[in-house]
Amino acid sequence: MNLVNRRILLGVTGGVAAYKAAELVRRLQDQGATMDVVMTEAATRFVGTATFQALSGRPVYTDAWDTRVPNGMAHIELGRAADLLLIAPCSADFLAKIAHGRADDLLSTLCVARNRPLAVAPAMNREMWANPATRRNVALLHEDGLVFIGPAAGDQACGETGDGRMSEPDEIVEAVVAHFTPRHLAGRRVLLTAGPTYEAIDPVRGITNRSSGKMGFAIARACARAGADVELVAGPCSLGTPPGVLRHDVISARDMHGIVMSRCDHWTPDVFVSVAAVADWRVANPSARKLKKDAGQTPPSLEFAPNPDILADVAARANPPYCVGFAAESENLIEHARDKRERKRVPLLVGNIGPDTFGRDDNVLVLIDEQGSSELPRASKDDLAGALVAEIARRLKG
Ligand code: C5P
User: pTM for the full model?
Assistant: First the structure.
């Protein structure tokens, strides 16, 4: 819930992508935002006002002469109440209007009268996006300090393919959340590991663990929101890559170790957050062929070899990044975590307070550093990730 106590005025203009604006209202509300919706007349040709009224639970405005606003000044009142004006979809015509300060309907008048930041998610045919007039308008709006979200490239409603598609609602939500997030890590490079590793027994079988990757991915997303350049080394998991994050997929602990060391050599991160549940052992001699289950044969026995400790190896480098380790313990968490912090020689160790953190959407974290320990109480992994990033940023500054 990153948008609690935030009020967003969503302007919907005339484009097929207006149907996605309905989903956008829901996703922004999921983050705690209060939504007011203003539509242009053209937008109502694509989606009815009733849809947005039902979703937002509030009146929808289309008309500068709307008498529901007590002082008759909808263009002032609605804009002043909002923390952000967001136009999605923003048509080529509407971009032109706001670039030139036109105020000939409620939404364009709101934009001219605003004293709040304005973000736009353009949506139009690729030729319209490439048109020199649109390019000039976009350049003017960049100069005016507008926040552009997208557009994306891909299949368009008209059957053509190219730039101009509206960004997906989740990407727009991410950009809105980032807009409100303090840029604690601006200019910092953060490398993370997340998820489980998979150690092969033979070509079809292997040993892994129940890590879902959710905590590590949430921290990667929070770092990107806080303005960092983020690279994420992910073991096998099915989560989507957070916007703005460069992802390296790996299978085994040794693969993960190789990529992390190479990124430390070539990219020199300022921070390393080791969230992955790395297998401590791998199968010493994995079979190149599938082990057969022959009747009467004794089952195979497995021999293990230790995996490299990625976190300890990063922390032991000559000029190490600020290292953050994780610990999941079933008992005596603080004692074990303190021990682990010293053994791995990392400044900050984060303990997951059980009972069963894997796969859950919430968690409790305990932070252990040289000062002692402090708790981040139970919250969603997303919220905890934001709080943890603020803690890391504070320690970096210190
Ligand atoms: O030693 P243990 O697995 O309990 O330590 C957990 C911490 O160490 C986590 O931050 C984990 O990502 C990291 N780790 C690692 N490489 C290993 C084992 C753990 O980076 N081989």
Answer: 0.89
Assess whether 158 carries a catalytic annotation. yes
Q: Phi and psi for 39 in degrees, rounded to 5?
A: -120, 145
- Best residue among 263, 271, 273, 274 to mutate for probing ligand 1's pocket (most ligand atoms within 8 Å of CB) is 274
Q: Is the CB of 109 under 6 A from ligand 1?
A: no
Report the alpha-carbon distance of residue 17 to residue 89 in Å, rounded. 6
189-397 classified as CATH 3.40.50.10300 = yes
Q: Give pLDDT tens digits for 230-272.
A: 999 999 999 999 989 999 999 999 999 999 999 999 999 999 9
CA of 186 to the centre of ligand 1 (A): 27
Residues of the chain with CATH 3.40.50.10300: 189-397
pLDDT tier for residue 71 given thresholds of 50, 70 and 90: confident
- Tracing tokens 């950009």 back to the chain, one arrives at 175
Pick the CATH number of 7-180 from 3.40.50.1950, 3.30.70.100, 3.40.50.1220, 3.40.30.10: 3.40.50.1950
Q: State if residue 91 touches ligand 1 by the CB under 6 angstroms criterion.
A: no
**CATH 3.40.50.1950 domain locations along the chain:** 7-180
Ligand 1 within 6 A of CB of 376 = no
